[in-house]
Amino acid sequence: MVPMPVSYTLVAPDANDRPSGLLRLTMLRTGYSDVVKPKLAAFLDAYPDIRIELCLQEALSNIVVDGFDAGIRLGHSLDRDMIAVRVSPDQRLVVVGSPDYFVRRGKPKHPRDLHAHECIGLRMSSGAVARWRFLDGDAELELAVEGRAVTNDGSVLVDAAVEGVGLAYVFEDMVSELVSERRLVRVLDKHCPQIPGYFLYYPSRQNLAPKVQVLVDFLKKARPRGRGQRAPVSAAR
Predict the structure, then answer these.
(1) Structural domain range at position 58
(2) How far apart, in whole angstroms, are the C-alpha atoms of residue 126 and residue 73?
(3) Residue 228 has pLDDT above 50, yes or no
(4) Same domain for 51 and 79?
């Protein structure tokens, strides 16, 4: 018997399985600067069929209700119902002021000395001014500081400190260059805590969209190692 010829059909991959479409993300401005900005161009080059929309907002967003695919937030503020993937090391908080400010007002030696200083306040989306949290030995210390200047923007906070308006309580990465240039000076370092870093979070669905999956993989692969110097302490945001 002569064997029958066998034919083969090549089946193209399902277009729905390829990473494509609009990827909507919500995050803090600092989350954009630290996590997304350094990697955005490379991600879009790697996935040309993906478009991206970035919504920078301080208020926590219900990503399901508001139509976002994922968000990036600090670890302590995440909803437990979400799947979270670390995308940054822990964040160190620092207190900084300008050299001119310290010439005029002196340097605080302990966090409680801040009551005698001009402290630039950060207005949160809840309307409250963020408290400053510190480590005092094995204890945590929380202070409601005072000052004549308040803002809801981290960049303005840093600018005001550079101009000598008062002291700012910010993430180390926001001011590291200014400190190296000696335009700002750090104080109270031994009392300043670390908090959990940024996490990419998304709803706990069984079938994760390819565009979200590749973002998860891309940010996980690119993230630096954590510093791991101190135990985390709760923060205002």
Answers:
(1) 20-87+196-222
(2) 16
(3) no
(4) yes
